[in-house]
């Protein structure tokens, strides 16, 4: 069993990442599909945030086990939870995506927290992040994506 | 039966309209809130004391907040665009609940990142605590194993204060920005 995302799928994933917001009609029938990714404009030294939608079109579960970026001192998977009007953030060590399921990050919910931006990013820039993941019982793998920056 | 249900729904809607002039959660009766003064980085004070014709929109947050705070301030910008020129009369104020990390300069720059018209302030811990109390809001540092050192759990609603210094409505996080824009249009 291979643990690698098939090259054709990876190409499509990267294409989808580069064209955030595109429809998924041309998306591969199988694999891990990334779409609607974006990062929030942020000043140097500030906390940044990024969002993306991951769709597991495979028959094995996928687990996102981490995220890294050269754009910030650290990157973490977080979820905003609001209880009785109070917003909390819950860090996630990993996020499982069942076969056929979609993990949709969005403001007010799941997000990537970018701690200590190493440079300011503004609209028109991109932020490169690498998602670490495993497929089923397979070995660790990674998926590099470039997220377009939108207004803060 | 169905007609009865419709009638009941109509009555309920009418009742809501009569009781709730705001699209946010109405504070009835409006509740006077005390004014607070913050020292700003440029040496000038900033006061939340009422100003005639100028409603106050208030949010408690912190600049290390990656999600709720930027989402809220980005919504303010949408409100601002919706209101057009009248937006200049709205005082949008971001109050840091993390004065240990957010200096007045950091808080001001953070708010200005979204719009030069937004005010960001950070006071001493007594001012912060007093203001949170006045608005029945909370902020609690939460240790984390992550790189940010600590996070702050904080009240996430917006507060709308009229030009008489009375809290008139709340907007829980997740309320569409259109509700605040519509209510501000009524006040302006």
Unreliable parts of chain A: 1-26
Instruction: List how many beta strands of chain A DSSP finds.
Output: 10
What gap, in angstroms, lies between the N and C termini of chain B?
Answer: 43 Å
The H-and-E topology of chain A, N to C, reads as HEEEEEEEEEE
Shape of chain A: globular
How much helix is in the residues of chain B? 25-40%
Number of helices of chain B: 5
Description:
The complex is a heterodimer of chains A (152) and B (188). Chain A is mainly beta and 152 residues long. Chain A is 8% helix and 52% strand. Chain A is built from one helix and ten strands. The longest helix of chain A has 12 residues, at 7-18. Helices cover 35% and strands 27% of the residues of chain B. Chain B has helices at residues 2-19, 68-83, 104-114, 125-134, 177-187; strands spanning 25-32, 37-39, 45-47, 56-61, 91-96, 119-121, 139-143, 150-155, 158-161, 166-171. In chain B, a hairpin with a 6-residue loop joins strand 7 (139-143) and strand 8. The model of chain B is unreliable at 6-18 (pLDDT under 50). Strand 5 of chain A pairs antiparallel with strand 8 of chain B, so a sheet runs across the interface.
Layout of helices and strands, plus pairs?
The complex is a heterodimer of chains A (152) and B (188).
Chain A: H1 7-18, E1 32-40, E2 48-56, E3 62-69, E4 72-83, E5 86-91, E6 95-97, E7 102-104, E8 110-117, E9 126-135, E10 140-150
Parallel strand pairs in A: 1-10
Antiparallel strand pairs in A: 1-2, 2-7, 2-8, 3-6, 3-9, 4-5, 4-8, 9-10
Chain B: H1 2-19, E1 25-32, E2 37-39, E3 45-47, E4 56-61, H2 68-83, E5 91-96, H3 104-114, E6 119-121, H4 125-134, E7 139-143, E8 150-155, E9 158-161, E10 166-171, H5 177-187
Parallel strand pairs in B: 4-5, 5-6
Antiparallel strand pairs in B: 1-10, 2-3, 4-9, 7-8, 9-10
């Amino acid at each position: 069993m291979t643990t690698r995302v098939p090259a054709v799928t990876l190409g499509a994933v990267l294409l989808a990442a580069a064209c955030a917001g595109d429809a998924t009609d041309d998306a591969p029938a199988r694999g891990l599909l990334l779409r609607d990714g974006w990062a929030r404009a942020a000043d140097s030294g500030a906390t940044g945030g990024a969002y993306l939608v991951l769709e597991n079109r495979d028959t094995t579960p996928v687990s996102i086990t981490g995220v890294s970026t050269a754009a910030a001192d650290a990157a973490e998977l977080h979820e905003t939870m609001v209880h009785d009007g109070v917003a909390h953030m819950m860090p996630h060590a990993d996020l499982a995506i069942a076969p056929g399921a979609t993990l949709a990050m969005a403001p007010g919910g799941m997000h990537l927290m970018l701690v200590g931006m190493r440079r300011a990013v503004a609209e028109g820039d991109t932020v490169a992040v690498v998602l670490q993941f495993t497929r089923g019982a397979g070995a660790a793998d990674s998926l590099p994506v470039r997220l377009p920056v939108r207004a803060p | 039966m169905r007609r009865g249900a419709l009638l009941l729904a109509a009555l309920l809607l009418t009742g809501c309209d009569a009781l709730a002039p705001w699209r946010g959660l109405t504070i009835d009766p409006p509740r006077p809130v005390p004014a607070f003064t913050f020292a700003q980085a440029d040496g000038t004070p900033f006061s939340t004391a009422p100003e005639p014709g100028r409603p106050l929109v208030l949010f408690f947050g912190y600049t290390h907040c990656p999600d709720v705070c930027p989402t809220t301030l980005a919504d303010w910008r949408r409100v601002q665009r919706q209101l057009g020129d009248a937006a200049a009369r709205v005082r949008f104020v971001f109050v840091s609940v993390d004065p240990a990390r957010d200096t007045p300069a950091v808080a001001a720059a953070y708010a200005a990142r979204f719009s030069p018209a937004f005010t960001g302030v950070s006071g001493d811990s007594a001012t912060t605590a007093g203001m949170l109390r006045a608005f029945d809001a909370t902020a609690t540092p939460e240790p984390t194993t992550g790189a940010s050192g600590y996070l702050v759990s904080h009240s996430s609603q917006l507060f709308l204060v009229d030009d008489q210094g009375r809290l008139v409505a709340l907007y829980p996080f997740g309320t569409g920005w259109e509700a605040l824009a519509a209510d501000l249009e009524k006040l302006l």
